[in-house]
Design goal:
With 102 residues, the protein is mainly β. Helix content is 0%, strand content 42%. The chain contains no helices and eight strands. β2 and β3 form a beta hairpin. The protein is globular and about 35 Å long.
Amino acid sequence: VNAISGSASATQLDVGGEVSCAVIDDGRVLCWGQGNPVALAVPGVSNAVDVSVGDGDACAVGVATGALSSTDTRVACWGSNSSGQLGNGTFTSTTRAVAVLD
């Protein structure tokens, strides 16, 4: 599967049970899997330097989310949140990256 198209290059990659994600040289995170061979950008992620994929969830480091500036370093997560594993103080699953609470 050629999940990353165009001139983008992956700088970091992680593979989970059903999903794979890559940090692209422009700081976006692209993920594919669960029957979707096309890499899609994760909404709410920019300036990522690392990504880690779990079983139904993922997190990126070095992320500017929402009102944060591109110089703020944060961890943002997305996916299943049935046990609060996204770290945002809720149990709501999301396809958009949410900042992990301090």
